[in-house]
Specification:
The protein is of the alpha/beta class and about 270 residues long. The radius of gyration is 20 Å and the shape is elongated.
């Protein structure tokens, strides 16, 4: 029995270098898992869309597919845009079994990537001393994701033994300029900003410029195509693929799924 196809689901961008990051992620994952069919779909601005990928899968007679949102702030449920795209695909290809996996979310292991990117930025500007940090995210995600973002900021503070301010680009909290200024009020002068962003889109660029204007001595690059993202994507895929298998087994045998399975919809408790 062929394993379900894995479709990396990205938000998309009008900037080619941003789209290239997720194309590279797909290629790297395909090289790591050559026996698995891995596709890439965008929710906007870029092609292929979810519907176009659905057509490709249908042409190859793919019966099952798992869509994994490359969203690092939402932890429990995919975005409304992702849900709507999958609903449209199911309407278009009712014979194909599809599952929308849990997003990547603000996983603890991604803090290692933020640290790496920040060390590179500090090395580039020859900075050897810090007394304050800003943990910058694009948005607050879902409620569970936002709770985990706050936890990651606390973990970062404990690890570096430095005060940390959270900054949001979507207006749900203080922006990066306000976060830098809050540290300055505390008497901090050597402040760096770690960006918990997937790629260098226009939001990242604007926030990075704002951080520099506010006096940050270093700003990190986004996470990019780090292999840890692929490990997370594979973990989310595996859970959702098992869900598809359980549904198929139940359908063939007539055995009802365990109570709560439909409610969970393929998501599992999050390890903090």
């Amino acid at each position: 029995m062929r394993a379900p196809s894995l479709v990396l689901l990205a938000s998309g961008s009008t900037q080619s270098h941003v789209a290239q990051v997720v194309h590279t992620l797909r290629k790297r994952m395909q090289s790591m898992r050559p026996s698995l069919d891995i596709q890439l779909a965008f929710l906007g601005h870029c092609q292929p869309t979810c519907q176009q990928v659905g057509d490709i899968l249908a042409e190859t007679e793919t019966e099952e597919a798992v869509f994994v949102p490359l969203d690092i702030t939402r932890a429990h449920r995919a975005s409304p845009e992702a849900t709507e795209a999958l609903e449209a695909l199911r309407f278009q290809h009712p014979g194909m079994a599809t599952r929308l996996a849990r997003p990547l979310g603000p996983a603890a292991e991604l803090l290692t990537v933020v640290d790496l990117r920040l060390r590179q930025a500090l090395s580039a500007c020859h900075a050897d001393e810090l007394d304050g940090l800003v943990f910058a995210v694009a948005d607050s995600g879902d409620p569970r994701g936002n709770a985990l973002i706050h936890r990651r900021a606390r973990q970062w503070r404990a690890h570096h033994k430095l005060p940390v301010q959270l900054a949001y680009a979507d207006g749900s909290g203080q922006n990066v300029k306000s976060a830098v200024n809050a540290l300055r009020v505390q008497g901090r002068r050597s402040i760096a900003v770690g960006f918990f962003y997937l790629d260098a889109d226009h939001i990242y660029t604007a926030q990075a410029d704002m951080a520099r204007e506010a006096g940050a001595i270093a700003v990190s690059a986004p996470l990019g195509d780090d292999v840890r993202l692929l490990d997370l994507a594979m973990a989310r895929y595996s859970v959702a693929a098992m869900d598809l298998l359980d549904e198929a087994t139940s359908s063939r045998t007539g055995i009802d799924l365990a109570p709560g399975t439909e409610i969970l919809n393929g998501f599992v408790p999050i390890d903090d």
